[in-house]
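Good morning,

Attaching, inline, the backbone tokens for the sequence recovery test we're adding to the shared suite. The designed sequence is right after.
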């Protein structure tokens, strides 16, 4: 089998070798576009290969469908914006009419001055004032309509963006659980932030700019038709080519953007997955493997991005060519008809000038067309989710039978079921079960037999393939799903809390916390029932203490007790307990179990348990085997049957000889009832001491966390006060970021910059060419006319070719440069995160959802700066510079005046940028937080669905996004004023320059010809500077992104997991020592977890760490791996301080199996090979056999190639843990760390795996954390933790003889079974 099976894990090894030398931060990673992995192949081949995906990927949405979520107000605003866009677009061609009148004045002046200079001067003075007044009026109109178009489109886009974001999240919340099994939370999070932003960008002012540019082009043609229809008609011969290029651009680019964004979303899913399991990644030195996996995905996105840039550059270059060719054709034909007497010089000039401006406006629409294309492609996936109808809709409150009260008569009749994500793997096979009202029933069996599946079916997470499930005689499909789930309470094996207070977490367990919230007394009563009140009340903020994402600030036992309180407060009709006490320490388990027993009274209760001591008193126990019930009866009945259940019980016995010896000890003869009372008293005392120890918890942590979780409105005010200062700082950071990433950009950026310079130079030179060509039309000598027509016609053609090449360089090559730099930046950010210590990820601000959102949005904003802003800025700057040079050649007066006027335009654009600066910073924070919130709920959707809190989280998400909405609208209005002023400035400047130029002529400082040449050139540069206003809003977003990027890149890691320095030992034997260790987590620096512990684990010995939840056992394991550093004292491995070790070598020699195992969204073989990247298939299978998972995997349709799903969600808890054990065993470590390694296993698997672990422990040192004392009774030394201190140590028998804390723990787990 090992020889024939394709090995899915093997490819990791070469990837790691390839990526290892790239991990330095010296800009050496993938500097050349040719550095793509060979498997990506040529870009064309890549696109062809993905053509097969057309059947599954949605097509880009139509332009009209982009606006399908617009309200009547939004439609009115958009229509008004369209009208104002057309009006604003018409301003430039209308300005040419005024300009043509000015040219007529110039020509008339030249004629009149020959006859009467004074009369000519008076005429010029009067007409110049007249036309300047018209210019001023036109400027005011431009200001008004430009303001209106920007404001209308921006506000409509803000409204639609908010609405789409809400609808997308709401639609996600109403999907069935089976759908979530097939998608990746990180991908959904990326789309909420990045894709919705792109949609908003495409339906906003950029849409208005396209209308403005197209309206300007059409208005130019209309004016041209009026002035000379024959000439215009001839010029129209090139328009079909322009339309064809634009159409191909829209179709091809939009299609490619879908694939590019899909790959970006997948890279976001990898980021979310890695950060969610960052401790596992660190423990197995998986950083380089994850970097290679991430690089592979961003390389695919990069390939599409480059092709988008190439296609975009070529198409826009073609459009530019035909626009210039239009002038060539128009000039040649106009000159010919002029000689024939069909046209006057003024008519030809009007037509050519107006077409020149119209063509320039059309080419300026390219960046905005790109934004709309990106919106269309982004909307495809977003709208697909919004439009999806779930067949199990938890938000449907209308259909179905309302479950106001459930008696709890639950019946399974011949139920067959398989998960949608694994349709070929049957889970339940003719499952039959009947539970009477009020009955307490337990389901036991091996991991993966279908126990937890029945829980999911009762909650109707899924529907069975065959058979029926009824509750109180009604088919479960006929119930209203929301009302049904409200009558059910559940405590799961892996408890999940939400990033809010303890009080709110418990309140969310109630049936209707919004309309009928539980009182504080009820909350406290529920906590007392769950044995959580004692430790909660001793926290600095008590029930108002924030627990962090997933309850990260609490221990596993504390989380599970709060989860139990959450179930208690619901007072459910049906109670589902899926390993409800698995994470509790022994002291807590008994009291909580007693509370659950009381809670189970008078209600139907279904318990799933591997600790059989917790279900021995159930009314009925069903043994599930391979998807069907094999035995059922009471505990005693099943034990007497001596079948599967009895075998499970025997596997969990502690040493009966020791128990009997203790019970029969004459010196300590105690009545059983008295002993039980003493035990309860000891437990209460133990728990009280645990709670009192929490008094040292600082308020600093919770206050800081509360500050971070306040609503966005509070962040708004603080950001406003420092907007200006931050703006300057952020600009410097943006410049620094561009400088830092100059090397990846250089290969494409340098030729792109040269061509951008060329593009900028072409514009004023072309304007000069047009002026000289116009002047040639007034010549009278036929030979001169013929010569000039031929000369200028050829020059027009040369400019057409040069303009096309220049535009390709400005757009295409800078897209290449942007993709090169963005890929490098994404890689560097991810690598930098991989160097950070585990404590960084404990901070709520650095939750996986927030970091995923940040990487997606910040790199996208940086990409826009490189692709669009830099090229446009270079082009505009060069246009201004060459215009100045040319104007200085002809008339230095006009040149100096233009230099004095252009800063006014720059200030107008700064005004526009400054208005959006603060909102960009605030929106970045808000979107990060909302992305974090969305990621948390999507990642834990089963808990959300169980609690029926979909509406709650929808409301919270909506509130979080609504907070900055009004502020964004205000910012849009201020920005619109700046945009209007910027657009009007070019008209004002032209008016001033024409009037001043005429005055220069009247004073005899310059000739009319030279003034006119200089004026036309500077007017073209002024026009181009005005176009920059359309891209100015990108700058604040890019600058805000730069600040966030450097917050990551400049941070120094306390424990760099990729560091290759440090010491190693020749022979690793597994000796571990703790010497007076004191430790507190960085997120809670004043809460001391370990208080001076010292112990040793000698080579080949098995050391067990036991004690209450939160006493510091698992923390010791983390310190051994150096995921954290101790505050004081020394953790040594092989007598070498872990701080001095080569960290990769240290972790390579150890392996861990944790209480809540993290698997990655890949095959079973890949997950096992994660422990040893170069493992052969034979080694993988051998490890699977040792972990008792081989037979299960072999029987799957895809065997070891079966994908385990997100976080191993397609496997049961026991199956996940066995894969995790195989992952550790394949590593063959010298030091084995077991943190509740068999907690999720059934008794039979536990016995087999425990035997394997016992055998494996003979060759290595083992540190074991366990609550099941049966798994550690044979350890060489047992270390008992209590409140961060070691209170006892010794062998099992020695500790029992002490009759101390360990003896108390054993008392609670003794299960008497008569042989």
């Amino acid at each position: 089998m090992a020889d024939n099976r394709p090995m899915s894990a093997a490819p990791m090894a070469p990837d790691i070798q390839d990526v290892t030398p790239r991990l330095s931060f010296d800009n050496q990673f993938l500097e050349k576009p040719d550095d793509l992995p060979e498997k990506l192949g040529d870009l064309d081949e890549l696109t062809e290969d993905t053509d097969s995906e057309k059947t599954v990927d949605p097509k880009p949405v139509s332009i009209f469908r982009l606006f399908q979520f617009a309200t009547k107000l939004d439609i009115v605003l958009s229509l008004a914006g369209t009208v104002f866009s057309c009006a604003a677009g018409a301003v430039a061609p209308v300005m040419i009419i005024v300009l043509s009148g000015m040219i007529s004045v110039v020509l008339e002046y030249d004629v009149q001055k020959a006859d009467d200079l004074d009369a000519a001067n008076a005429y010029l003075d009067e007409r110049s004032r007249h036309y300047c007044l018209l210019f001023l009026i036109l400027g005011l109109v431009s200001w008004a309509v430009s303001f209106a178009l920007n404001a209308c489109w921006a506000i409509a886009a803000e409204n639609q963006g908010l609405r789409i974001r809400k609808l997308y999240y709401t639609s996600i919340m109403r999907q069935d659980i089976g759908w979530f099994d097939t998608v990746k939370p990180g991908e959904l999070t990326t789309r909420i932030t990045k894709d919705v932003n792109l949609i908003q960008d495409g339906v906003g002012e950029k849409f208005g700019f396209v209308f403005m540019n197209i309206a300007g082009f059409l208005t130019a043609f209309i004016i041209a038709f009026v002035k000379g229809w024959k000439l215009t008609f001839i010029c129209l011969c090139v328009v079909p080519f322009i339309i064809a290029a634009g159409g191909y651009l829209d179709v091809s680019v939009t299609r490619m953007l879908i694939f590019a964004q899909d790959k970006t979303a997948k890279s976001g899913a990898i980021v979310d997955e890695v950060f969610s399991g960052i401790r596992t990644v660190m423990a197995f030195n998986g950083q380089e493997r994850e970097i290679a996996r991430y690089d592979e995905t961003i390389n695919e996105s990069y390939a599409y991005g480059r092709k988008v840039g190439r296609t975009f550059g070529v198409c826009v270059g073609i459009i530019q060519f035909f626009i210039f060719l239009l002038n060539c054709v128009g000039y040649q034909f106009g000159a010919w008809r002029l000689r024939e007497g069909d046209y006057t010089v003024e008519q030809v000039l009007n037509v050519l000038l107006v077409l020149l401006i119209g063509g320039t406006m059309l080419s300026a629409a390219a960046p905005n067309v790109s934004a709309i294309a990106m919106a269309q492609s982004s909307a495809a996936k977003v709208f697909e989710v919004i439009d999806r109808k779930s067949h199990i809709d938890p938000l449907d409150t209308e259909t179905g039978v309302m479950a106001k009260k459930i008696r709890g008569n639950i019946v399974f009749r011949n139920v067959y079921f398989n998960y949608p994500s694994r349709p070929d793997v049957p889970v339940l096979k003719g499952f039959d079960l009947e539970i009477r009202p009020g009955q307490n029933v337990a389901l036991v069996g091996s991991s993966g037999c279908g126990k937890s599946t029945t829980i999911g079916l009762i909650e109707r997470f899924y529907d069975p393939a065959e058979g029926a499930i009824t509750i109180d005689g009604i088919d479960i499909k006929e119930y209203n799903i929301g009302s049904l789930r409200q009558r059910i309470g559940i405590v799961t094996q892996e408890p999940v809390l939400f990033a809010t207070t303890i009080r709110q977490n418990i309140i969310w367990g109630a049936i209707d916390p919004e309309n009928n919230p539980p009182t504080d007394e009820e909350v406290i009563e529920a906590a007392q029932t769950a044995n959580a009140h004692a430790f909660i009340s001793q926290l600095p903020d008590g029930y108002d203490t924030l627990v962090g994402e997933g309850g990260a600030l609490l221990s596993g036992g504390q989380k599970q007790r709060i989860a139990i309180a959450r179930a208690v407060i619901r007072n459910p009709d049906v109670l589902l307990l899926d390993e409800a006490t698995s994470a509790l320490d022994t002291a807590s388990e008994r009291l909580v179990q007693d509370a659950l027993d009381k809670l189970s009274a008078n209600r139907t209760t279904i318990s799933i348990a591997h600790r059989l001591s917790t279900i021995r008193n159930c009314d009925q126990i069903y043994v599930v085997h391979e998807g069907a019930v094999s035995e059922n009866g009471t505990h005693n009945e099943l034990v007497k049957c001596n079948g599967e259940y009895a075998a499970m019980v025997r596997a969990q016995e502690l040493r009966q000889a020791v128990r009997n010896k203790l019970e029969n000890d004459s010196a300590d003869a105690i009545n059983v009832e008295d002993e039980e009372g003493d035990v309860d008293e000891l437990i209460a005392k133990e728990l009280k001491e645990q709670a009192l120890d929490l008094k040292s918890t600082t308020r600093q942590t919770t206050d800081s966390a509360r500050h971070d979780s306040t609503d966005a409105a509070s962040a708004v005010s603080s950001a406003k006060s420092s907007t200006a200062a931050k703006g300057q700082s952020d600009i410097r950071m943006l410049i620094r970021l561009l400088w830092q990433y100059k090397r990846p950009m250089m290969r494409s950026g340098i030729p792109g910059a040269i061509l951008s310079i060329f593009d900028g130079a072409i514009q004023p030179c072309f304007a000069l060419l047009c002026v000289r060509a116009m002047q040639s039309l007034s010549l009278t000598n036929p030979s001169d006319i013929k010569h000039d027509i031929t000369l200028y016609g050829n020059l027009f053609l040369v400019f057409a070719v040069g303009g096309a090449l220049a535009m390709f360089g400005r757009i295409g090559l800078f897209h290449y440069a942007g993709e090169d730099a963005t890929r490098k930046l994404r890689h560097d950010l991810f690598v930098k995160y991989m160097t950070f210590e585990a404590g960084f990820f404990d901070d709520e601000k650095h939750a996986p959802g927030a970091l995923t959102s940040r990487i997606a949005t910040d790199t996208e904003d940086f990409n826009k700066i490189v692709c669009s802003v830099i090229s446009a800025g270079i082009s505009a700057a060069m246009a201004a510079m060459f215009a100045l040079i040319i104007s200085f050649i002809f008339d230095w007066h006009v040149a100096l005046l233009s230099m004095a006027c252009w800063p006014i335009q720059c200030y107008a654009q700064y005004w526009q940028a400054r208005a959006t600066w603060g909102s960009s910073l605030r929106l970045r924070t808000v979107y990060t937080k909302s992305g974090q919130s969305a990621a948390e709920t999507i990642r834990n959707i089963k808990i959300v669905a169980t609690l029926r809190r979909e509406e709650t989280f929808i409301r919270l998400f909506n509130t979080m996004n609504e907070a900055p909405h009004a502020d964004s609208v205000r910012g849009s209005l201020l920005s619109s004023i700046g945009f209007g002023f910027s657009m009007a400035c070019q008209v004002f400047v032209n008016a001033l320059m024409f009037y001043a130029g005429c005055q220069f002529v009247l004073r005899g400082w310059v000739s009319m010809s030279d003034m006119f040449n200089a004026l036309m050139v500077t007017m073209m540069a002024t026009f181009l500077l005005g176009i920059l206003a359309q891209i100015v809003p990108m700058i604040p977003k890019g600058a805000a992104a730069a600040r966030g990027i450097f917050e990551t890149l400049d941070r120094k890691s306390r424990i760099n997991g990729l560091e290759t320095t440090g010491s190693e030992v020749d022979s690793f034997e597994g000796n571990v020592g703790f010497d007076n260790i004191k430790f507190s987590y960085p997120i809670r620096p004043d809460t001391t977890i370990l208080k001076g512990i010292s112990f040793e684990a000698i080579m080949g010995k098995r050391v067990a760490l036991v004690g209450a939840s939160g006493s510091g056992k698992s923390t010791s394991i983390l310190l051994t791996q150096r995921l954290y550093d101790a505050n004081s004292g020394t953790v040594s491995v092989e007598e070498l301080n872990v701080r001095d070790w080569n960290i990769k070598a240290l972790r390579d020699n150890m392996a861990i199996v944790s209480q809540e195992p993290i698997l990655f969204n890949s095959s079973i073989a890949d997950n096992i090979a994660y422990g040893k990247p170069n493992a052969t298939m034979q080694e993988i299978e051998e490890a699977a056999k040792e972990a008792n998972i081989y037979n299960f995997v072999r029987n799957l349709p895809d065997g070891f190639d079966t994908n385990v799903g997100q976080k191993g969600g397609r496997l049961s808890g026991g199956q996940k843990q066995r894969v995790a054990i195989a992952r550790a065993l394949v590593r063959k470590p010298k030091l084995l760390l077991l943190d509740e390694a068999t907690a999720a296993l059934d008794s039979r698997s536990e016995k087999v795996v425990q035997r394997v672990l016992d055998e494996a422990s003979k060759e290595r040192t083992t540190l074991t954390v366990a609550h099941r004392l049966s798994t550690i009774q044979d350890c060489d030394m047992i270390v008992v933790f209590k409140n961060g201190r070691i209170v006892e140590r010794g062998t099992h028998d020695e500790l029992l003889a002490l009759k101390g804390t360990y003896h108390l723990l054993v008392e609670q787990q003794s299960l008497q079974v008569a042989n």
